[in-house]
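Feature request, filed as a ticket because there's no other form

It would be nice if the structure record came with a short human-readable summary line next to the tokens. Right now we just get the raw output. Example of a typical job, pasted below so the devs can see what we mean:
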Amino acid sequence: NNNGKDDFESLKELYKGYDKLDLELEAAETLQDLYEKYNYGSLNNIAIHYSEAGCYDKAMDLYKQDFNERNSAITAFNIALEYKYKNSKCYKEWLEKSLQVDENYNNAIYSYGVYLVDKGEEDRGYKMINRAFNSWKSEYENNNLSSHISWFISCAKYLEKYDLANQLEEKNQKSSANFSDFDENNLTALSKK
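Raw output as currently delivered:
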């Protein structure tokens, strides 16, 4: 073991193990330690883990702190997602902020397009959805997908391109089938060298 030390490499391995096992609260706390002690990671990524762990207030505080420091389209989008089912006005506002920071951020383009369709602005909404789809399709074909493939799959389904969506899901399942190096029983071994 590492004699109780939480040095950088040990903490990083521990974080990766928690992350891989979807132990979100443990991943959040470990990544926050890494960030505070070694400036590793980002407040946005810490907030994602806290959100996934159900600690929404803590996540929102970190997202907003990150956005104030870095003015990131991704962070603005993550704030929007926190509001999606809670406050439609704030959801729209943060999607717009995300697009103001980066007008080509596909996740925000797609999500704002869906929002517009749901609000009755079908022409404008579908233009945005198709724009995101075409961008993701090009990225995918060039093996340079900027977002998790689930966003591209969701977009394809929304546009009723089910054959492509099924093909993408099948390929994604095959690539996700790699066995994990970690399990809950060997986490303490993660810090061994």
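Something like this underneath would help us a lot:
The chain has a mean pLDDT of 90.
Residues 83 and 90 are 6 Å apart (CA to CA).
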